[in-house]
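FORM 7B: Structural annotation worksheet

SECTION A. Query
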Amino acid sequence: MGEHEEAKWIRTADNRWRRVTRREFLKIAAAGAVAGSLWPYINVPSVWAQRRRLTILHWAHFVPGYDDWFDKVYTSQWGRANDVEVVVDHIPFGQVPARAAAEVAARSGHDLYQHISPAATLEPETEDMGDIIERKSTYNPKTKKWFAFSNSWVPDPSHYRKDLFAEAGFEPDSWFSVLEAGRKLKAKGVPVGIGLGNDIDANYVLRDIIWSFGGTTQNQSNEVTINSKNTVEAVKYVRALFKEAMTPEVLAWDASSNNRAMLAGAVSFVFNAISIARTSEKANDHLTRHIQIWVPPRGPQMLGGKRLGAQHVILAYMIWKFTPNDRKALAKKFLVDFINNWGPAFTHAELYEFPSFPGTVPDITQQVLNDPVAARLGQPNKYRPLASTLKWSTNVGHPGFANAAEAEIFDTFIIPQMFAVAATDRMSPEEAVQWAERQMRPVYAKWKGRGLM
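SECTION B. Predicted structure
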């Protein structure tokens, strides 16, 4: 070997590492005996010891193909391009909060942690994302901190049996129509299905009803506003819906009960992300052509007649404060690159996730209106209501910001409990709303006392 000739390590075709000069490398490469293809190669012992690693915790997606694409294609390609080993772990969505609490308690965990809600109660444990994102659902105006990075969110439209509603003479365009149709359809054995148990879907749709009746849980100043005549009217409506158009089973529903009920043909109307419609399409059963997507029903005109729907899932990445600084920087680079190349993610999620930054999917309306699966099954307009989702979707905590108090109230299911005690006559609607207010005020006081509101 010449005195000034550079030496590098290569891996040969028989899977052995060998130190060679550039001249030797070219000879070996010409003979086809080198596993690698580029010079200069790496000094194996030192670089492999220092290779960067990024760990990510993700929920198990409701569209299985998305996880395959993210794990095996996107992160693999990004890892090779950035010389990073990317490790992705998946857990069911119901385990996400508990696992996060465990990582915080241990002061050790994943470099990137994906939540399915803003998880504002964890703000003190998170890195500020203000240098890469601005989004209302993950911003605290009190602390001036973006405590998470929201790359996408999931619309929460209604699903209804188009054939059954047509027989009843209605479309579910207003909550009044849902009740009127529900009365007739319950008598036919296909009632309305709005959960009143401690489940995530009930948390969303019952807030929709409060908003559509002109009520709110808080105002823009983070003050509790649930005790209003509008909320009382919303509770009265749900009590009537429960008694006249639903069955007692909804009191014990979990997060997947409405999916199962609609796919089994047991109910005529539910609220959920489009996982119901997509599951039906994959099964291609006799119900597929009858299940239709619809916008949230409108409330009574005399109470404002609003049409609002809570974002079903707000996917938000957090970086823990205790994560080493070099891995914090790497995690942020991953997020910026991911969001700037988010078009394929939207496609692989099959319209399930919408971008937090619409400009990253400029043809989103065309994709929604021309969904190939719906067209192939003879329902070319099935997902049309999603084209207007930005007009009717809003964050939990509307008209204010998502905050720690709203997050705790969501996680402890105070809103579904308020509706349930009135629906089952354990309290009057007025008493139920007053009860909810008594539960909420200490929660707000606690988080304000901690300086987060």
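SECTION C. Observations
The first strand starts at residue 7 and ends at 11. The chain is about 40% helix and 15% strand.

SECTION D. Sign-off
Analyst initials: ____
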